[in-house]
Write a structure and sequence with these properties.
2 copies of one chain form a homodimer.
Chain A lengths: L1 E2 L4 H14 L2 E8 L19 H14 L2 E12 L4 E10 L14 E5 H8 L5 H7 L6 H15 L13 H16 L9 E4 L3 H11 L6 E4 L3 E5 L3 H23 L2 H10 L2 E4 L3 H12 L6 H11 L3 E3 H7 L1 H7 L5 H7 L10 E3 L14 H23 L1 H26 L19 H9 L29 E3 L7 E3 L12 E5 L8 H8 L5 E7 L2 E6 L17 E4 H7 L1
C-alpha cells in the first residue's frame, strides 16, 4: 500500500492497526545518498574503520542525506489459515515546507550516483517531491507546539503601533467603545473592523483583548469583536484546540509511524540495518548523539528488539553453510523460496495488492522481502535445532489431517434411504452455486507452523539468542554491531592485543613506528592498559609480529580470547 | 524545444545553428536551492552586504547548489517578415554518472523550499533525473581526455601477474608463439585467446604488445591477437579516434552549449542574472575564483556582452518612470505587451511550438520572456531618445507601403482586350488552388523595426551604453554589479566616506565604537586612505554624523561625488 501526503492522515489508522496486530515488522529505507566525497569511501575500497570513527561517519551521513522512501511490512500469524499475512506499506518522504510556516528551511544533500541507482528501479521522483510526507523531529515539534500554544491562548506579546497606523487603531477603539455603549453587546452580532493586512489584524487583536470580556475573531477581510457567552467561549476554545491537534498531527507527519513502531516494542527486522537505524533516529527522532554508547542506548530504547537478516546469515553456522558470502537480500529471497525453507507460508493481505508482482528495491517491497526471509530463516534454524519439537507438531498435524479426511469421507458417502437406494440430489442442482459458496466458507489451511520469535516473557531468546540486537558491520575489527553490549573482536589472524602500563598514550603516532612494516592498521581501544591493533591485509602468523620496544607487549588475539 | 539526454547529440546542431544565426540570446536557470541555513539569509530579511562578502556567498552557493534546468532562447531578425523569430530551448541538467566511469562522484545540495517552489510550476523531477543532460567542466574534461588517451594509445602501465594467473599467461604466450611460427600470420584470422574477466583481458593486452607488430583486439568473451597491415592499423587507429571523440563529446555534454554561447561572443541577456552567471561558470566551466576581480575578469572573458533586464528597468530613467519597483519578469512581460511597446514584433519559430501556451518559470520560457522584454525595452528607449530616426523610418515605410498599394491596385485592374471587353478568367478557375499558393509566397511583413543592439563595430554603445555588462544587485551599497569596472556608490543619504591616513586599519572593530549609535552598517573599502560606511536604515542627514576621533574625517557621499 502506497501512502501519499494527501492520504496520510486518512490511512494512518490502517498503519496503526497493522502494527498493533502484528507478530513483528520489517523495515527498509531508500536514501538520497550514502557516500559524500571525503566523507565516505566508495563501498568497493578496502579500508578498516575504528568503531568510533565509523559511527562518526554514519552520524555525518545522517546529517547530510535523507530517507526519501520508507518501507514497513507487518507480519501477522493467521491461525485459521495456518500462515502469515503480510501488510507492506510504502511511504515517500519529503521535507516539504508547505504544511505551515514553522517548517524549518531544510537543506539536504543528494549523491548523483544514488539517484542514478534509483532510476534503475523506476523510482518516481515526482511522487517523492509532490506526494512525499513531511515530518517534524521531537524538538521541532516542541517549537511548533510552543508557537501554536502561544497563538491559541492569545498570549502574543504586544507589538508597537506604527505612527501611520495610530489613526486606524484609534478609530477601531472608538468603534468598539461605541458598540459597548450601544447596549447591543448581549446580542450575537458584535462589531466588525476591516483590516487591510496582517499587521492591522494583529493590532486589532491586541486592542480588543484590553477590553474586559471581549474576543476578537478573525474573518475573511475583517475582524469581528464580540462578547461571548460562557458556552460560546468554551465551544470556541474547543474548536481552537481541535484545530491545533489536527495541525500538530499533520506537522508531525511521518514521524508518527516511527513513534508507533517504537511504542509497539515489537521485533523490527532489517537487512544490513545499521545505517537505516541511524537515519531513522537522526531524521525523525533527534540528531544522533555525540558518542557511540549514547547512540546505542538511544536506539535500543527506541527499538528494543532488532534483528538483521544479513547478520543472521553470517553469524549462524547452519545459515552461513548454506549462503556463504551470498547474503544480498535478493539472493536470500531467491534461496529461501526453495523446499527446505517451505515453512512458514506467507501471503500478502488481499487489501495490499501492490506487490503481487515483484518490485525489488522499492522500500515497501524490500521490507516485505526482508520480513519474509527472516521468518524463513528463523523457522529453518528452529527446525534444525529442535527436530523433536517439529516431529511432535508434524505428528499432531498428521493426526488432525487424518481425522479431517475421515470426516470428509463420511460426509461424501452417498445418502441411502431405508431400502438402500441412493437419495437423488437432483433437486438441489440449481442451488449449486450457493452450495459452493457455503463450502468456501471453510477456510483453507496452509498447514504451516507459527514461528517462535520470543519466549513467554517476550524475550528473543529462543533461536534468536545469538543475533538479537546485532547488525552486520563490514570493514571493522568486529563481526557485528551490538546495540546492547560492547562488541567482541573475534579470532582473526590479522589482530593482536598490545599491552602497556596504564596511562600510556597509545595512538597512531605511537603505533606507526612499531607496526608500519606489517601494513596498514587501525587501533581499537580495549581497556586502560591495552588496545587491539588490526591490520588491513596481514595474513601471516600474528605471533611473529615483534616490536623493538619493551614498553609494549604483544599478545596474539587467539591467546587473548583463550584467557578471557 | 525540450532536449533530453537521449536526444542531446542529435539535437546539438540545431542549438549550434540557432546560436550562429541569432542577433542575441537570453538565458535563465532553475536551481536546486539558493539559501542554505547559515549561508544565505532568506530574501525578505533586510541586510546590507559588503561586495566581497556577497561574492563569497554566491561562490559558496555555486559550490553547493546545482542548475537543474537551463533555458536558452535565441532571437533572430527576419527581414522578409519584418519581425524577430525566437527559438527557445529547455534543457534539464543532471550530473548523471551513467555515461562513463570517469564521472566524478558528485554530491550536491537541495533546499526543500526550492523544490516546493518548483512543484507550483509543475517541474518534472522524473525528467530531471531520468532525462537530464550530464556535463564535465574544463578540468574534468582534461582528466577524461588524459585517461582515454592513455587507453587509446595502448599506453597502460604493466600490472603484476598474479601467481594464480601465471599458467594462464604462459599458455596464452605459447599460443601466440605457435601461431607466429605457423606462418599464418599474414592471413586475416589471427589467434583467439579466451579471457574470463577484465584482469585476464588486461594481461593479454600487455603480453601481446611485447610481440613486435602484433595487436590485441578485444572481442566478446575473448581477445584476438592479429598482425595488422599498415592500412588495417590506420583504420583501426581512426576507428579508435572516432570513438574517443564521440565519448568525449558525450561526456562534455551540456557544457558544449555554454561553450557555443561563449564562443559566439553575442549579447547574452538575463533577468537579475548575476547568480545565474555565477552558477553557469561554476558548474560548467570551472570553480569560481577566490576573489571578486578574478571572477569579473573570467565572466567577462566568457560572456563579453551581457545585459540584465531587471537592471535596465531601474537604471534607465524612462523605464523606471514606467515600471517603478515592479520589475519582476512576469510584470515586465505583461507591461511590455501594451501599445507603447508594440515594436518589434516577435514570433516563435514554427519548429518550436512548446511555448505557444505560456509556461512561466520553465527556464526555456523564462528565457523567451526575458529576451522578448529586452527587445521591447531597447526598442522603446531607442525610439524615445531618437524620435527623428524613427520618423525617418516611419516615413520610409509609409512610402513603401503606398508604392506597394499602387502596384497592387494596378494589378487588380480588370484586364480588357483591345475592344475594351473584360477578358474572362473562367478558364483559370480550376487552377485556383495553385494560384492561392503562389499568392502565399509573398511573405506577410509585420512591419516592425529591427532594434539597434550594437554599433558597426559590434559594441553595445547605442542605447545600451549605460547598462551593458551590469546586473541588478540588491542589498549592497551599489546600484548594480559591474563586470567591467569597479562599481560606483551612488548618492544616497545612508552613506558617508570616512578618510584616514594611508595605512590606518579601518575595519569593523575600528568603526563599531565610532558609528554604533547610527545603527547597523557595513564598510566598503574605497582606496588606501578611505572607506565608505553604509548604514542599513539611517535616513537622516549624513552631514550630521559626527565622530569623537580626529583621525577620521567624515565626508557626506554627495560631497564626495561632486568632487570626483
Amino acid at each position: 500500500m502506497e501512502i501519499s501526503r494527501q492520504q496520510f492522515s486518512q490511512k494512518l489508522p490502517e498503519v496503526e492497526k497493522a502494527i498493533k496486530e502484528c507478530d513483528f515488522m520489517a523495515i527498509d529505507t531508500e536514501l538520497s545518498g550514502e557516500y559524500a566525497h571525503g566523507l565516505h569511501r566508495p563501498p568497493t575500497s578496502v579500508r578498516l574503520y575504528n568503531m568510533a570513527d565509523r559511527y562518526q561517519e554514519y552520524k555525518e551521513a545522517t546529517e547530510r542525506f535523507l530517507i526519501i522512501q520508507f518501507g514497513l511490512c507487518t507480519f501477522t500469524w493467521d491461525e485459521p489459515s495456518g500462515r502469515y499475512i503480510a501488510k507492506p506499506f510504502n511511504f515517500y518522504i519529503f521535507p516539504t515546507s508547505t504544511t505551515g510556516q514553522i517548517q524549518a528551511n531544510r537543506v539536504f544533500m543528494t549523491q548523483a550516483q544514488a539517484f542514478d541507482f534509483l532510476t534503475k528501479q523506476s523510482f518516481d521522483f515526482n511522487k517523492w517531491v509532490y506526494q512525499g510526507i513531511p515530518y517534524l523531529t521531537v524538538a521541532e515539534e516542541e517549537v511548533f507546539v510552543a508557537a501554536a500554544s502561544k497563538k491559541m491562548s492569545d498570549n502574543m506579546p504586544d507589538i508597537p503601533i506604527d505612527d501611520k497606523e495610530q489613526d486606524f487603531v484609534n478609530e477601531a477603539k472608538l468603534k468598539i467603545k461605541d458598540w459597548i455603549q450601544s447596549d447591543k453587546t448581549a446580542a450575537d452580532e458584535g462589531v466588525n473592523i476591516t483590516a487591510k493586512n496582517a499587521y492591522q489584524r494583529r493590532l486589532i487583536y491586541q486592542e480588543a483583548r484590553k477590553f474586559e470580556g471581549l474576543t476578537a475573531i478573525g474573518m475573511q477581510g475583517f475582524i469581528r469583536v464580540v462578547r461571548l457567552s460562557e458556552k460560546q467561549a468554551q465551544d470556541r476554545q474547543k474548536e481552537k484546540q481541535d484545530k491545533f491537534e489536527k495541525d500538530r498531527a499533520s506537522a508531525i507527519g511521518f514521524r508518527k509511524v516511527i513513534d508507533l513502531i517504537s511504542q509497539s516494542g515489537k521485533i523490527m527486522v532489517g537487512h544490513n540495518m545499521l545505517l537505516d537505524v541511524c537515519h531513522i533516529v537522526g531524521q525523525f527522532v533527534e540528531p544522533l548523539p555525540e558518542t557511540l554508547p549514547e547512540f546505542k542506548a538511544l536506539a535500543h530504547r527506541l527499538f528494543p528488539k532488532m534483528a538483521d537478516t544479513k547478520y543472521m546469515c553470517t553469524a549462524e553456522p547452519e545459515l552461513s553453510a548454506i549462503f556463504g558470502s551470498g547474503t544480498a537480500l535478493e539472493t536470500l529471497r531467491f534461496e529461501t523460496k526453495k523446499e527446505q525453507f517451505k515453512n512458514p507460508h506467507i501471503d500478502m493481505h488481499p487489501g495490499f495488492p501492490r506487490y503481487l508482482t515483484e518490485m525489488a528495491h522499492e522500500a515497501g517491497y524490500d521490507a516485505f522481502m526482508t520480513g519474509s526471509v527472516f521468518l524463513k530463516l528463523v523457522a529453518y534454524l528452529d527446525k534444525t535445532r529442535n527436530p523433536k519439537k517439529y516431529a511432535v507438531i508434524e505428528a499432531q498435524r498428521l493426526a488432525e489431517a487424518e481425522a479431517k479426511e475421515e470426516e470428509r469421507q463420511r460426509e461424501i458417502q452417498p445418502k441411502v434411504d431405508a431400502d438402500g437406494w441412493e437419495i437423488s440430489e437432483d433437486e438441489d442442482e440449481d442451488n449449486e452455486e450457493s452450495d459452493w459458496n457455503l463450502q468456501e466458507e471453510e477456510v483453507y489451511n496452509y498447514g504451516s507452523v507459527r514461528v517462535d520469535l520470543t519466549n513467554k516473557d517476550g524475550a528473543m531468546d529462543n533461536v534468536l539468542n545469538d543475533i538479537n540486537n546485532k547488525t552486520a558491520l563490514v570493514r571493522t575489527a568486529f563481526d557485528c554491531f551490538d546495540f546492547q553490549i560492547p562488541e567482541i573482536i573475534s579470532n582473526q589472524s590479522n589482530t593482536i592485543l598490545v599491552k602497556y602500563s596504564p596511562g600510556t598514550l597509545f595512538d597512531m603516532a605511537t603505533a606507526e613506528p612499531l607496526f608500519y612494516e606489517y601494513g596498514k592498521f587501525i587501533i581499537e581501544p580495549n581497556d586502560a592498559s591495552s588496545s587491539f591493533v588490526i591490520f588491513e591485509s596481514y595474513r601471516n602468523d600474528p605471533a611473529a609480529i615483534q616490536v623493538d620496544n619493551d614498553a609494549f607487549i604483544i599478545v596474539p588475539i587467539a591467546e587473548y580470547l583463550e584467557n578471557r
